[in-house]
Design brief:
The chain is an alpha+beta fold. It has eleven helices and 15 strands. Helix 4 runs antiparallel to helix 11.
């Protein structure tokens, strides 16, 4: 048989292969099948162990205490989500069970209030990467394990006991939550408040231009830290100080050091001796796959040369799908400025989305990169200080 090799468009990614595959393909599928219900999960030792580990972690974190059910209180439900974590070589890394609150049963003003959590801005990412390249700073990425579980709740939230783990002596009690859980409306905000409070206590200042950016500037040390949910980018002029800062944060939060930055919010970062390149190859292909346009014919322009004319029997477009695709294409312009005008055009008329998207999809077959960042370092620093008011 011929040698197996990944397709050319996936050359930048790890394409896992399984050595000595089982004779039965069904056996392979069953071995990594994720249970959809608690009843199914309880049949397997691996999933029972994963649930026990999750419950132990929640108890260790003092996530809740059992209390008698308050009369008339709104009690949210909970459910289990099961995921199989894979290694790069295609083998199973671990079985993950996560307890999730049914936040859709929460009542505004009663068991949740503010839910807003800042989202990192695209220009901020560009500034951070540009500064790191020009000053040759290290670009590190951290992952916060179970980030939402660190948030402290200000509201009184009651939750049913976890399915399969009802206390034998207090079966009618409910969980009074002290810490946030995945699924709660206020969980993202509670986590961000917890992290930002910790960073400010260390000496960081929150940027006035972007609440996701934190700056540390003391003596000769200049550190930039960018947060998006549980993903953290950190860079600065003192690698030793960055390491000590990481150790300090690890005392309050369980951190996983992912090393050099390679992937953040769909942006693929490649490092070379002269700087970095940024692309969204996988993001673009996933977008085209969802739109069923991977087989589109290749063209040289992202927009038609003449206005699109629609026939009377043209297929209507789902408004929700329209907004989703427009938003995805807009984010793709981060590294594909060549489609910006085309994306703005389709954003003006829902009726031409299908035809216009086909043109853009055909053009996206050509992969473009945002190359090494090169600008005047002093002007960048001055602009940054003006934006953060520092």
């Amino acid at each position: 048989t011929r040698d197996k090799h990944p397709p050319s468009y996936l050359r930048d990614y790890n394409c896992p292969t399984i050595k000595n595959p089982p004779q039965s393909h069904d056996a392979l599928i069953i071995s990594i099948e994720e249970p959809k219900t608690l009843k199914t999960a309880l049949k397997y030792t691996n999933w029972r162990t994963a649930m026990n580990d999750e419950i132990d972690a929640l108890h260790h974190n003092h996530t809740w205490s059992l209390v008698p059910r308050p009369p008339g209180a709104n009690v949210v439900g909970s459910k289990w989500i099961f995921r199989t974590k894979m290694k790069e070589d295609g083998t199973i890394d671990r079985f993950k069970a996560r307890l999730v609150a049914k936040g859709y049963t929460q009542i505004p003003g009663l068991d949740f209030g503010e839910t807003f959590s800042p989202v990192v801005k695209a220009p901020t990412i560009r500034v951070i990467l540009s500064l790191a390249v020009h000053f040759k700073w290290p670009l590190k990425q951290l992952d916060v394990k179970n980030a939402f579980l660190h948030g402290t709740l200000n509201e009184r939230v009651y939750m049913e006991q976890p399915p399969g783990f009802v206390h034998s002596q207090y079966p009618n009690h409910v969980c009074l939550l002290h810490k946030s859980l995945y699924g709660l409306k206020q969980a993202p905000r509670a986590w961000f408040d917890k992290l930002s409070t910790c960073l400010v206590s260390i000496g960081f200042i929150c940027s006035k231009a972007d609440s996701s950016l934190f700056i540390y500037h003391l003596d000769t040390n200049f550190i930039l830290l960018l947060v998006y949910v549980d993903d953290v980018i950190i860079t600065g002029n003192n690698p030793t100080f960055i390491s000590s800062l990481t150790e300090r944060l690890n005392k309050d939060f369980a951190l996983k050091d992912l090393g050099q930055l390679h992937y953040f919010l769909g942006l693929e970062v490649r490092h070379f001796s002269g700087g970095i390149t940024i692309s969204q190859t996988k993001y673009a292909r996933d977008l085209l796959e969802k739109a069923n346009m991977l087989e589109a014919s290749k063209i040289n322009t992202p927009i038609a040369h003449k206005a699109i004319e629609l026939s009377d029997d043209h297929e209507s477009v789902d408004p929700t799908e329209y907004r989703r695709l427009c938003g995805s294409l807009q984010y793709l312009t981060f590294t594909r400025p060549d489609i910006t005008h085309a994306v703005n055009v389709i954003g003006q008329d829902v009726q031409i989305l299908g035809e216009a998207l086909l043109v853009i999809a055909s053009f996206l077959d050509q992969i473009a990169y945002l190359g090494p960042q090169r600008s005047n370092p002093q002007s960048l620093v001055q602009a940054l200080k003006q934006n953060i008011g520092h």
